[in-house]
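Input.
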Amino acid sequence: MTGRAGSPHDEASPVGACASLYRVATVGVILVAVSALINFAWATSFPIWSLTLLAIDFLVIYAIIAHGAEMKEARET
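Output.
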């Protein structure tokens, strides 16, 4: 019965979407943080490669955290 006017699911959809985006962002930050820790551990063996990947990991974490609100706004439109 989704899509009907006046359905109780119509009002709950944005709330569920926002909660889902928050969970996805949290999982993303955790996975990239684990990747950063692993790259830091390998820094003595592969310094250039590890530092490159650490920089990418930190940029990804920044993008997820700083621009998460933009994803929420785009989702709502």
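The longest helix spans residues 8-41.
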